[in-house]
Every structure is written in structure tokens, then in C-alpha cells.
């Protein structure tokens, strides 16, 4: 009786079960695409948490008025005229 039990479990472990189907090319492609999406989602979550923890490190140190030549801040209306 032990011998029959051993034979049935060894046949399942070897992969000869009729319920195991090989993955088709479409399934492999979909699985790869979903895995890439999960990796991208993980990177976005990490980036968002880094911005939430230290929001000022991601901001540039210059302001919008640094690029104006010879104009003071607040005199933008005169530059248009």
C-alpha cells in the first residue's frame, strides 16, 4: 500500500499530470507585459513616496524670474509693452 502511494505522488511531482498545460505564446506575452507594468508601478510608488517624504529636494533652486535679463521681479507687464 505504501508503494502505490509513493508511485502516485512521484508521478505528480514529475509533471506527468494531465492537468498541467504549457503556456502559449500569447500567455507568455501577456504575463511579461503584466510583469513590466508591475515593475513600472512599483517604481512610480517609490518615486511618489520619496517626493512625499522630502518634497523640496525635487524642486529646482532657480525661480521663473532668473531668466529675465535686466528686469526686476514684478516688472513683467512692462516687458510685454
Model regions low in confidence, pLDDT < 50 over at least 5 residues? none
Distance between the termini: 100 Å
Number of helices: 3
Q: Percent of residues in helical segments? A: 55-70%
- The shape is rod-shaped
What does this structure look like?
This is Cortexin-2-like protein. InterPro entries: Cortexin. It comes from Callorhinchus milii (Ghost shark). It is a single-pass membrane protein. The chain crosses the membrane at residues 30-49. By secondary structure, the protein is an all-alpha fold. The chain has a domain at 25-54. Helices cover 57% and strands 0% of the residues. The chain has 3 helices and no strands. The protein has helices spanning 2-13, 25-53, 76-80. The longest helix is centred in the middle third of the chain and has 29 residues, at 25-53. The mean pLDDT is 74.
Keywords:
mainly alpha; Cortexin-2-like protein; 81 residues; transmembrane helix; 3 helices; membrane; transmembrane
Helices, strands, pairings?
Elements: H1 2-13, H2 25-53, H3 76-80
Main location: membrane
Membrane topology: Single-pass membrane protein
Protein name: Cortexin-2-like protein
Short description:
Its main location: membrane. This protein has 81 residues and is mainly alpha-helical.
Amino acid at each position: 500500500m505504501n508503494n502505490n502511494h509513493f508511485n502516485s505522488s512521484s508521478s505528480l511531482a514529475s509533471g506527468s499530470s494531465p492537468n498541467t498545460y504549457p503556456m502559449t505564446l500569447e500567455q507568455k506575452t501577456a504575463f511579461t507585459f503584466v510583469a513590466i507594468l508591475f515593475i513600472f508601478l512599483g517604481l512610480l510608488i517609490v518615486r511618489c513616496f520619496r517626493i512625499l517624504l522630502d518634497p523640496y529636494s525635487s524642486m529646482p533652486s532657480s525661480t521663473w524670474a532668473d531668466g529675465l535679463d535686466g528686469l526686476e521681479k514684478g516688472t513683467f507687464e512692462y516687458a510685454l509693452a
